[in-house]
């Protein structure tokens, strides 16, 4: 008896502590971003190719400033509206007075497919039209399969059926939204606060699903000796989160990034409903009926609210018919200031606030120069060819202030235009790598069948230490052509006044109009 009383007394003493330990922490939701900075890094392995439109392969460093009100004690702080590709291991929260206990990335989003996935093997309410009476009725059912490949339901009678196969309106209603399902990508952190207070916090993290590229437009002057050069930065955000009025920056250069495992996308995707054939669908085609899924969220004993969360393709097409006409193109904004050094990388700061929109691209001006000195060349790398081959038409710019440029130029593509008979026409496109100030920039815009070369090797003995090349250049144009041939091997004797590039030589010569030039030289063979 005494033992039982002692145990009861101990249990009474521990009960308040156990109740406190079992109590769930308060949930604080932060939905508003007071300020944001988005710094975008190019896809490390993309090279000069186009941005992946489905899911950009670069990433961004994002800084968000938010104001939150914390209760005393332990609470879960949910940052809603973070970038979809957030890497949770990189997230840092500063400004919380007593620190962070843990952090989690909530991967699933509120969507039709997400709701079906969250309610698998659980009961929902079907609201449908009776095919016989035409009255709207409700019945309980259990989701047995979905969302991929259709939704299979088990009704109260124990039978199985696919959702939305009757040809008449059907809706699926949920009693409540699951706690782990958010309308926006969310990062949650478990925090401690010794007192209730309102604080300003900064959330910093890396996020995948971003990328940027540089694009240039070059207008060749009528004199053929200058270019008007305009540059644009195109920033892509492949996620579902927008950052309005953000400070946008981009980083140029090749950055070494350690592999990180692929993140699950925030939503299982669009809900696709599939049916088996029924005679009634020929009268009421499925694609003419709105496939609406609703949520019934209980806020009190008798109160309920229905929230429509999807629309079918037809709804979206009808909405598109009433979208306002696009605004006229804005005046070219001023280009950003010169690039800043970030180690061996280049940091470009956009001097005005921009909207980094979800699933969209943003273009901002990079540079605008109207008189950049340019020269036209015809170029090739030497190889043996018994038949004449066309040379590459090349526009060369020296990236110097004295020549009207003198800026760090990120890698990208350039479209070159010329005016012919008062009409502006595209003459070619060229890809360039990252170019530093005072570096040579070549735009290879297409082959010229009018300026060609042929290279033959004269016969030699098996033990000869040298072989002799003969190169013939022909110019069928009515004006002189400046030709540049890269010779990728050692020449004996070394030529005078030729440019040396690494282990190669550059032969540069002017070929008169409607004429030809022939040059012979000896190649020193290995082991000779």
Description:
It is a single chain. With 528 residues, this protein is mainly beta. The chain folds into three domains: 23-107 and 180-212 and 236-257 and 267-271 and 314-354, Immunoglobulin-like, CATH 2.60.40; 120-177 and 282-309, no CATH class; 374-524, no CATH class. Helix content is 7%, strand content 49%. It is built from three helices and 32 strands. It has helices at 2-22, 112-118, 313-321; strands spanning 26-30, 35-41, 58-70, 73-80, 85-86, 92-94, 100-106, 123-129, 136-145, 152-155, 160-162, 170-174, 186-193, 197-220, 226-237, 243-252, 294-298, 304-308, 340-342, 345-349, 354-356, 360-373, 375-381, 385-398, 412-420, 423-432, 440-457, 466-475, 481-487, 499-501, 504-511, 515-524. Strands 2, 3, 5, 6, 14, 15, 16, 19, 20, 21, 22, 25 and 26 form a 13-stranded mixed beta sheet that branches. Strands 30-31-29-23-24-27-28-32 form an eight-stranded mixed beta sheet, with no helix packed on it. Strands 11-10-9-8-12-17-18 form a seven-stranded mixed beta sheet, with no helix packed on it. The longest helix is centred in the first third of the chain and has 21 residues, at 2-22. The protein is elongated. Residues 16-21, 264-268 and 278-330 have low confidence and may be disordered.
């Amino acid at each position: 008896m005494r033992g039982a009383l002692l145990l009861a007394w101990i249990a009474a003493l521990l009960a308040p502590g156990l109740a406190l330990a079992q109590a769930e922490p308060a949930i604080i939701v932060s939905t508003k971003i007071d300020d944001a900075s988005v710094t975008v890094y190019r896809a490390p392995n993309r090279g000069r190719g186009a941005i992946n439109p489905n899911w950009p392969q670069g990433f961004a460093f994002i800084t968000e400033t938010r104001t939150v009100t914390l209760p005393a004690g332990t609470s879960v702080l949910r940052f809603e509206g973070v970038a979809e590709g957030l890497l949770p291991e990189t997230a840092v929260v500063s400004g919380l007075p007593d620190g962070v206990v843990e952090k989690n990335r909530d991967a699933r989003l509120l969507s039709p497919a997400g709701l079906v996935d969250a309610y698998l093997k659980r009961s929902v309410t079907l609201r449908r039209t009776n095919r016989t009476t035409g009255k709207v009725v409700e019945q309980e059912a259990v989701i047995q399969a979905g969302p991929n490949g259709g939704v299979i339901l088990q009704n109260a009678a124990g039978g199985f059926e696919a959702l939305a196969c009757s040809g008449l309106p059907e809706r699926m209603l949920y009693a409540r939204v699951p706690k782990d399902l958010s309308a926006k990508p969310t990062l949650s952190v478990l925090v401690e606060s010794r007192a209730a207070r309102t604080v300003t916090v900064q959330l910093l993290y890396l996020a995948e699903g971003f990328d940027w590229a540089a694009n240039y437009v070059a207008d060749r002057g009528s004199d053929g000796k200058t270019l008007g050069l305009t540059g644009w930065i195109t920033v892509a955000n492949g996620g579902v989160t927008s950052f309005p009025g953000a400070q946008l920056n981009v980083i140029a250069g090749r950055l070494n990034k350690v592999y990180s495992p692929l993140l699950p996308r925030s939503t299982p995707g669009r809900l696709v409903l599939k049916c088996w054939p029924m005679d009634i669908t020929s009268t009421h085609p499925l694609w003419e009926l709105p496939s609406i899924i609703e949520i019934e969220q209980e806020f009190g004993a008798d109160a309920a609210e229905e929230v429509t969360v999807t629309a079918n393709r037809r709804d979206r097409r009808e909405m598109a018919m009433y979208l306002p006409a696009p605004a006229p193109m804005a005046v070219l904004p001023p280009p950003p200031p010169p690039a800043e050094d970030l180690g061996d990388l280049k940091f470009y700061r956009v001097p005005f606030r921009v909207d980094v929109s979800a699933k969209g691209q943003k273009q901002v001006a990079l540079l605008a120069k109207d008189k950049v000195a340019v020269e036209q060349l015809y170029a090739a790398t030497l190889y043996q060819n018994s038949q004449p081959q066309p040379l590459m038409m090349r526009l060369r710019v020296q990236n110097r202030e004295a020549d009207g440029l003198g800026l760090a130029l990120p890698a990208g593509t350039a479209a070159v235009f010329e005016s012919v008979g008062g009409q502006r026409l595209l003459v070619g496109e060229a890809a360039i790598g990252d170019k530093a100030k005072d570096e040579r920039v070549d735009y290879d815009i297409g082959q010229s069948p009018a300026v060609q070369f042929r290279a033959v090797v004269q016969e030699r003995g098996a033990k000869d230490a040298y072989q002799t090349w003969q190169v013939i250049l022909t110019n069928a144009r009515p004006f002189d052509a400046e030709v540049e041939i890269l010779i990728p091997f050692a020449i004996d004797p070394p030529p005078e006044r030729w440019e040396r590039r690494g282990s190669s030589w550059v032969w540069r010569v002017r070929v008169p109009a409607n004429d030809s030039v022939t040059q012979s030289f000896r190649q020193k063979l290995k082991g000779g």
